[in-house]
Amino acid sequence: MSIYRCNSCGFIAEVVPIDGSATHCGRCAKPVTVYGTVFFIERILQRYAESLREVKKLKDTLANFDQQSGSDGEPRSTATKDNSPEAAALDHTFLPTEEQHFPLHLWFKSRQFDVRFQYDNVDLSGYFDEAANQIVEHEHLLADVIGKIGWSYRKNHSGINIDLNKMAQKDVGAITKICRSWYDGALLSKYFYQKNEKVLRLGLQTATPARLFFTGGWLEWFALSTVLKLQDTFQKTPISVARGAKVQFPNEDLFELDVVALFEKQLFVIECKSGEFRSEINRLSRLQKRLGLDGRFFVICSPQLDEAQAKSMTAMYGISFVNLQMLAPHIQRTLAAG
């Protein structure tokens, strides 16, 4: 099969004519040129990479100008880079767009797979990615809290009480600070800490996004955040990402992929398993083969695994098992190895 994109109306379609021939747009009937699918994708990715480099160059130029002069034209005495979450979110405003997802669309289309994206699934303007990174950063402190919140959601409870009496004061301070930030960010509906009794009372948010986050979605946000942080390492490699992509195979089987990331031409699929997943290994292995991916690029991320377990299961099943700490190094090593 070959592919064309109409310059008049932007319509994209696959056609039978060979590469280099002419046909007419299926939407507006204007003449169009047909290209081989692989050639078309390569050209799109090349332009995408060039555009990202141009954007980075413009940002660097503006940053240098901002360092040298203020809004009133007077020189600045000092300048520091804003590494706040708010500044990072501004850099990612292009993520929930059709253009950002388009290279992924072409990758699946070239393999005769239909794919649907919900662009808002990678919108970093909310609080989910920050909260996910808090959970991972303080994994040893928050594992019990996250477990109880998830259990309470599954039992349709409206809130939980957490006894902190047996914890060190330093850990109590860290947990209450994080839970307070979740309340401030509207992930929780209520927050109250009874200092004398050392009991933390949390009200569960009934909104579906919060429920999904605490029942496993936080791991998807962490995986997405991990992939995006690798952009600093692979600046010359264009990255297209999606969360919750729905892929339909030619026989109409439908699968939802937790996180997908296209590094130039190489696709990574990251399946996030916050709970028990061993009964799903066979299904996941079949999915990896149907996608045509080398096992190195099909990753099962689970916080329940230690490093020895992850390496053992990788050797046994031919797909990649990692825990939270192993995810970024695995992607880096795999991309570097080619």
Automatic annotation (TrEMBL):
The keyword Coiled coil applies. Residues 210-282 form the Card1 endonuclease domain. Residues 41-68 form a coiled coil. GO terms for molecular function: nucleic acid binding. Pfam families: Card1_endonuc. Keywords: Coiled coil. It comes from the Bacteria. The keyword Coiled coil applies. InterPro entries: Card1_endonucl_dom, Restrct_endonuc-II-like, tRNA_endonuc-like_dom_sf. This is DUF1887 family protein.
